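Table 4 source record.
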Amino acid sequence: MSVRDCLDRLVKQRKISRVTAQQADALWRRYQNKFSLDLPPAQADAAAALQTAREMLQSTRRKKNAVAMQVKRQTAVEREQMSHPWGPAAGGMAILTRDIYRLGGENVDTRAQALREVLFSKFNAGIEAYKSTMAGLKQNAAGARNLVRELFEVDSGDAVAKAAAKGWQDATEWGSKYVQSAGKIFEEMENWRMPQFWSADRVRRFGMGDAFQADVLNAVAAGGLKVFDKEAQEFATNPARIRVLVAKAARDIITEAGSAPAFSKEMRTFHFPQGEVGFKAFDALQTKYGAGNDIIGTLTGHLGAMAREAALVDVLGPQHAATAAMLAKNARHWERLGKQGQGRVRPARMLGLESGSAIDRTYAVLSGKANGVENTFWGGIMGGARSLLTASSLGSAVIPATIGDSVTALLAARYNGMEGGKVLARTVELLTGENPQAQEDAARLLVTGHAMSDHAIATRRYTDQLAAPELLRKISDTVVRASGLNAWTEGIKKAFSLEMMAFVARQRGIAYGALEAPFKSFLDRYRISPAEWDQLRARPTFDFRGAKFFDTSTAVDDPVVRKLYEGVLQERALAVLEPDARVRAFTTGGVRSGSLLGEVARSLSMFQSFSMTMITTHMMALAIKDGVAGNRALNNALFYTLHLPPARRSCRRARCCRARIRSI
């Protein structure tokens, strides 16, 4: 009995559905084609049938696990939302991003930061070796290309590239296992090596995709590319069918652009086989129609997308869109009915930062739906104009930025019982005495310093695009780097994280009851119980540059360590202000650029993200908290008198501009 006959029989007996039978048949044909390359026909059929049976069984188990994880996470999230003392709207937002009422708890935004640091730490060798220098104008493109060679199992003879390729493989493998353990179901690529990014502008420019299609078909003919037929669930071999699939792919790229989402449920259309021929085809097509020389930017961007998707699945469940819709629905229901005692003046609600609609917008930002371009023409024109305004407004921004970040770092340190002077001293040390070993040790502690995307590279990325918005974005980014803003921001962020971990290590000998009020408040804020503090105290420290630090390397594997580490990340957000998902949802409208609403929101809020971040962090904390290191009046006076000196007021627009760059 053939496999198809067997499947038909199972369908008639109602043991499986017709859809399941079609999936099994497509999977069997795919494996049959694969095994027939090395085995006789009969053995290939049998091996394919056995592998199909195994995979269908695993698929059933994964689906059951995904349902269980979804129910568990959705129930926990709804309970957390409804128990928030400021209401379900505030509770829903606190699950998606940092709670402006400083009540702690896990959230998607912070979890994504933590997971991104884990992924970046595993790929740290590649990031450090190939990151752009000279204010983003120089990059080791040849070395990065050797990295791709190694990923295609082509010996480049480059030891650095080998280490970087190993780090990339470790990072992506870890990310895949992590998101699968959280219940995510996706189709792992049999020949998956690195993300494919296709530029809609590039594909459209060459004859509305005609040249792209011709180049792809040439690569197929040369054996460097296979085209996967998603409908038939097998690699296409018929030339006419291949042309149809390539034409469809070109249309999709022009209209949708970008790259496939992380952990996509669908197999890719273009598959490049391992070896020299696959590498050459991939390199040629990506150079002409994709990421160009910005290989590291593409890789780190993909790791960031992996972290965001993993965080959404981890916190909201495998069907995170359904959970986010539930959060918004609960918030809207509460808004319509109202609750006794909730009629207080709510600045966050008045500004549109706390509502059912705000939940929708914030989820759109976190899930990536607000990214990309709706209309490339208008998106390019308006984006280019904003880039020019950004570059022209940043002349002396490094001075007020240094003062402002120093003051907020001092306040955040003081709030947690730390010595602010040590944070600033460590910042200077990191900026002036950095070395490869220090970078490696810091990466082990999940302090990579790569929170901002390293996307500025040589303007020669595309020689025929020198007058396009791509160049304008690079100009604004280069201005930021050349002014020293980027170095100072990353330096003080790393310094605060490291100093807080050192501070935690110094508290290890103190029982919970004997801790000073500021640090005890930190533990309470992030729901670390006395018993959990005893667990953290028992953990070994990490020696780094002659000092002891709390070891956060197991932050993702150990839930208690993760609580502490994510608490450090959230406190760092007060030390160095950066727009979170709540603020980005406000400045983007939660929609793509190039759309009417998206362009209006981005243009009107261009210089407002810093002020909005200030409102949702320090100003909100000072307004609702007495503080543990002084009274409310003293904290307010210290903040407003030190943070807005005359020189800073005159440069406020430039500082806001820097914040805008962070949110783009």
